Amino acid sequence: MSHAKTCRQCGAEVALTRLPRAQGEDSGVRVEIEGMPAYLCARGHKRFLTPDFPLHLIEKLLNADGTFSAPHANKRGLIRKRYHCPGCGGDMPAESGRHASARHRIEFSDSATVDVALTLPLYRCARCEHDVLHPRQEVQRALMDAAASAFRSANVPPG
Ligand SMILES: [Zn+2]
Ligand SMILES: [Zn+2]
Fold first, then answer.
1. Mean of the pLDDT values across residues 56-65?
2. How far apart are the C-alpha atoms of 12 and 48, rounded to whole Å?
3. Ligand 2 centre from 102 Cα, in Å?
4. Ligand with smallest separation from the Cα of 6
């Protein structure tokens, strides 16, 4: 693996830096990334540590302990989606009530760490009063979209 020493856009020398907080949101899922490592040149051009850094960060976040700490609702209906409680089968409300917030410290092999604050919408079953998440696939997709928009807001060109 080659180490980047010069900026691909202007040829100036680059230094490793930590980006300020970048955040993104999708379907009520919010991702805040703090201290993302990136290369920065004297003219302000930014570059990810590696081209696949965003993908690795998302994968590690999806697989981190406690990312999905609440049970997932079941979904029925293709055209009009309806969500059901995994515990009692009751109907879930359309609007989320509380949010589950957690901080994750994601570690990379080169000992770089990134702190991610993750907020997921919870839905409370009216019958058994348990808080549940939307189906895993939907939460994962929203998390990926929220992270992608956080990466965009950090203004680092892809590649
Ligand atoms: Zn540059
Ligand atoms: Zn229930």
1. 93
2. 16
3. 23
4. 1
Q: 82: CA distance to ligand 2 center in Å? A: 14
d(CA 60, CA 68): 13
The token pair at 96 is 């989320």
The rounded distance, in Å, linking the Cα atoms of 107 and 152 is 21
d(C-alpha 65, C-alpha 107), whole Å: 13
DSSP label at 90? P
Strands (E), 1-159: 14-19, 22-26, 29-34, 36-41, 46-48, 74-76, 82-84, 99-107, 113-121, 123-124, 131-132
Q: Say which residues have a Cβ less than 8 Å from residue 67's Cβ, sequence separation at least 6.
A: 61, 102, 104, 118
Q: Domain extents for the chain?
A: 20-34+65-153
81 CA → ligand 2 middle, Å: 17
Residues 17-38: pLDDT tens digits? 999 999 999 999 999 999 999 9
pLDDT of residue 60 exceeding 60: yes
